[in-house]
Design a protein that fits this description.
With about 190 residues, the chain is mainly α. The protein folds into two domains: about 150 residues; about 25 residues, no CATH class. It is built from seven helices and two strands. The protein has a two-stranded antiparallel ribbon. Strand 1 and strand 2 form a beta hairpin. Helix 2 packs antiparallel against helix 6, helix 3 runs antiparallel to helix 4 and helix 4 runs antiparallel to helix 6. The relative contact order is 0.17.
């Protein structure tokens, strides 16, 4: 049973690293974005608000954790849990700012600070919606690959007989070991 749950490490590493990098981006962009005139209000670098905590820092940290779990997992369940954490984090990035006014003030993360309509749209995409959609896509692709790829086969020890030795059958017919090996062949899968 344990051998059925093992996976090759390479199956989750690329998705895990990408998910971790997206989580780092989501957590840090509200703090360093104002240096590049890419920000939400308050548009001052390294300004902390509870809206940033709930809508950017925590989902970004969860995506980082899920990505790291996905990248280093040796078992299928651990990797799938990491992908699930990344998927939930991406969904929270995409939808959290929309549903947050249900329990708190309007626009808890602030509003885009760009001066043009294009820049405000790019800030919305880069901070929340686009980032969340990409995270969901990466996590879902990693989870799909993990469930579609067969597990690592268990090592089955095979005992070989020396070739050319003569064996006697119960009916009196004499056969070689090669004939016996063909008769004993089993499919292990």
């Amino acid at each position: 049973m344990v051998a059925m749950l093992r996976i090759r490490r390479s199956h989750g590493i690329s998705g895990g690293v990408l998910l971790a990098l997206l989580g780092i981006w989501g957590s840090l962009i509200p703090f360093v974005g104002p240096y590049f005139h890419y920000a939400y209000t308050p548009d001052k670098a390294w300004t902390y608000t509870t809206g940033r905590l709930w809508l950017e820092i925590l989902p970004g940290a969860a995506a980082l954790l899920g990505g790291l779990m996905l990248a280093v997992a040796r078992g299928r369940h651990t990797a799938l849990f990491g992908a699930f954490v990344g998927l939930v984090s991406g969904a929270w990035f995409a939808l959290g700012n929309v549903v947050a006014p249900l329990w708190t003030t309007v626009a808890p993360a602030g509003v885009p600070a760009g001066s043009t309509t294009l820049m405000r749209a790019m800030e919305q995409i880069g901070f929340f919606t686009g980032l969340g959609v990409v995270m969901v896509f990466v996590a879902a692709a990693a989870a799909g690959r993990l469930t579609a790829v067969p597990s690592v086969p268990a090592e089955v020890p095979v005992r070989r007989r020396p070739a050319g030795r003569v064996r006697a059958r119960s009916a009196g017919a004499v056969t070689t070991d090669a004939d016996a090996d063909r008769a004993d062949t089993r499919v292990i899968g």
